[in-house]
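Morning run. Coffee first, then this:
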Amino acid sequence: MLYIIFLIIVALIAFGVYNKLTNAVCTSNRRLEGKTAVITGGTSGLGLVIAKDFAKRGARVIVACPFEEEGTNARQEIIKESGNENVLFKNLDLSSLSSVREFAKEIQKTENRLDILVNNAGVGIPGDFLTKDGLNFIMQVNYYGHFLLTLLLLPLLKKTGIESDPARIVNMSSLTHRYASSDVDNYNRAGYWFTIRTYSNSKLCLVLFSKELTRRLSGTNVVVNCSDPGFAATRIYKSSSEFLGFLAITLILLFANTAFQGAQTAIYLSVDKAVNGSGEYFQNCKKIAAAAKANNETSIRKLWDQSIKLVQLSDEELKDLNLL
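And here it is:
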């Protein structure tokens, strides 16, 4: 037994050393003066790292979350570290379709451009229940809310992007998408999946969505890609249990990624001019193959149709968005 434990410890250490040595850092020194970026969940964890990076590059940065105090404190922290006062906090509750609509309406009203949209916000496995919109909570925060937000902001993204510098959408997926189910018909159910499977499903959805949106954005100057942060130490692991979350974060800090490391691929996809494709999956600032199930055309189309229905987008809205 001691020998087995010893082997496990050695394996973990070896994995940790390998991971630390191979973890990529975005090396682009591109400035973002005159650019506007929206980061959901930009007030903590990976999102806060991304927001600080954009602010240091000179961008107008809009961070969004549903917590007023957290948002205000994050804004002050970003300004203090970057010296850039062009940072705003706006309230956004992704578990509420009306909140998503209100947020998108305000962005369209107050902003004349949108260069970067980072769909980073997410929850882990806090519970298995439906929201007032009749959507699975984990699925709505991680995917359905971002689906609606992205589509509502497309006019501004299309207006901003140019051929030499397209507007960019970054969807924060996860290696857990590889363990998701392809049973799209039951994605929105509560009490049907283990919560970790629901989380995995939500991350696969972001990959499927990116592929279909890429097809529908053909001929426009907007690109959309997925970022995989690896196992990164953020508070998302505390959503089911403080103790287990603390233990998970401690182990991840020892053997896997910090929030800074986990954010690098999303930053790369947002700023590096070497990124010129769309509908791809990236890890460690390199394009890699997503799970085979992410290329299933039936799942891709079925999810799109399901999502349109669940977020209550009308045919008139889809026509206005040129998505019919």
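The chain is about 50% helix and 10% strand. Good start to the day.
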